[in-house]
Write a structure and sequence with these properties.
Structural class of chain B: mainly alpha
Shape of chain B: globular
Radius of gyration of chain A: 19 Å
CATH topology of chain B: ABC transporter involved in vitamin B12 uptake, BtuC
CATH architecture of chain B: Orthogonal Bundle
Oligomer: heterodimer
Number of helices of chain B: 16
Strand content of chain B: under 5%
Distance between the termini of chain A: 45 Å
Number of strands of chain A: 2
CATH class of chain B: Mainly Alpha
Strand order of the largest sheet of chain B: 1-2
Largest interface: A-B, 45 and 42 residues
Order of helices and strands of chain A: HHHHEEHHHHHHHH
Number of strands of chain B: 2
Strand content of chain A: under 5%
Order of helices and strands of chain B: HHHHHHHHHHHHHHEEHH
Strand order of the largest sheet of chain A: 1-2
Helix content of chain A: over 70%
Structural class of chain A: mainly alpha
Chain lengths: 296, 351
Amino acid sequence: MIVDIMNMLFNGTLTGAVYALIAMGYSLVYGVGGIMNLSHGAYFMLTGYLLLWMLQTPFFIGLEWLTVVFALIIITVIGGLTFLLLVKPLQDSHVAVVIVTFGLAFLLEQVVLISPSGTEVWSIGQLRLFQGYTMVFGYPIVHQYVFLIVMSIVIVLLFALFINKSKLGKSIRAVSQDREAAGLMGINASRILLYTVMISALLAGLAAFLYLPGASLDGPSMGWGYLLNSFAVVILGGMGSLIGSVAGAFIVGYTISFTNVFVPYGPSWAHLVPIIIIIVILLIRPQGLFGKKELR
Amino acid sequence: MLNLKIVKEKMNEFPSYLKSWVKTFTGSLTIFCLLILFVMPFLSANQSFTHVFLRQFSLAMIFAIFAASWDLLTGISGQISFGHAIFFGISGYICAYLIKYQSFPIWISIIISTVVAVFFGLAIGFPLLRLKGPYLALGTLAMSLILLKLFLMGSLADWLFGSEGISALPGLAATPVIEYFILFIFMILTFVILIQISKSKFGTILKSIRDDEVGSDASGINTTKYKIYAFMLSSFFAGLAGGFYALYIGAVNPTGNFGTVLSFFAILMASLGGLATISGAALGAFFFIFLEYALIEIGVVEIGNLAIDFGLYKFAIFAVILIVIIRFAEHGILKPLLERLKDLWDLLLGR
């Protein structure tokens, strides 16, 4: 019993920490620019595969840390290019933005699928910074995951600090509150949006770097699952609210791990948790826990 | 609501309306295309022709119905759906189940499965229509992913048939030619109904909701009611296409009938033809199916020492096409192309 409870608590915290990172950027982009970026899950997936491909290249033997730097730079650039080439010219039409980012997510999935490593399950365990595990009440606590949880909390705090204190963070908040007024104050709104999308891609990449070495690359379609779960997180916490996405991430995380551990056939039912959360929240509180009153 | 007198008047006007319609550019072109499609099966009795080439046309017709149903929901009424595979798949599964395990006749199972799809449209539309714009898109995408996972679930395999699905279904008709004509008739019916709907008062209301929801709410339109109607209508035709598709393939399985790919196809076809045009969906579907066919036929091409397998790359190519179309030509390519042609036509006739 105590093992089950440990299992639930630990995995819930772990899932929550991963989704906090992914959903925070996702929610930020929506809050600032009203952009629903459906390729956000694909960024997470692609970072994992970028790391894998670089680790497979002989050049990077002994230089594993460099692959992380490169992968994060590449994913940030891809995020920026997504905004500049696809989203910015179409910003006025919600339908077009959604379709075009959906198309991009699909393209990235297919590109990975036709690459030589597309159809198998891979491990990028070389990038684990901490090996081994400690038994606590009979449940193995993997050190890498403890590192992830700590790092995630640190990143969330740093990010909150960045948004609240730095000049760029203040501009981001200004644009999200009133785009036109921010423009009149001399803030280049589309440049701020560009930075926001790049930051969100970076956060998704960081989440992939922290989580995937301990787990495995399950195939290019895994991006959709992360997109779906972060959508549930963001709906639960309220679109555009950072506290909301962090709180929502942990609620979703604990719910999923509870289902996994205590419900018969749990791992299969856990897939249904996000949609149930989405529907329940939409029916009783459409703006989410911390969201603004109106839902755009 | 239904005034018999008006209906009678319209019925009397119909022949002359048809006559004048045929004389217009779109009318004559449509009749021309339909004639080509009509004589198509009689061109050759060759096995490879009827069983391979003609079946591609049948597939294109099924997808034309599917894409048109998506276009009604997203193009005409502005409710973005990324999970149209829900209705397509559920209808296919019900149809397959009824035929295989309850030994229902084919047509009754198609009718039942379409009705079930409509109920799904109602059940999904009701909670999800609180969402607007991009939220709805993700909500429907989430729904379709969930259904896909439910059907793939091993522990539910006793009820939902697991990843194997249901196979060895009877065909829609005895020969590909009869199948072709059945689908041909249903495609024409679908398009006539959908185009008439989009031109009717109901269609105008849907368009007004798309263009300005607050405005149409203020002018006394019950927007939720009409959006649910649009959802149900769209799921009706998607369900019809789904039932036909299950019988066309002869089997149903989770990835083949619920996959995100199918929703993506509907979006791609409708965007190729042009959003909110309904008839564009048919153009897009035919273009798309034959592009896919061509890519598979081309197969592996060797450029230098680089071998490119187009059959494998097709989805990536489609994704690029979708991105490019939405980015540079939001109104589609085929329909505007036809409009240019029409200008040329008018110029030639000196109108």
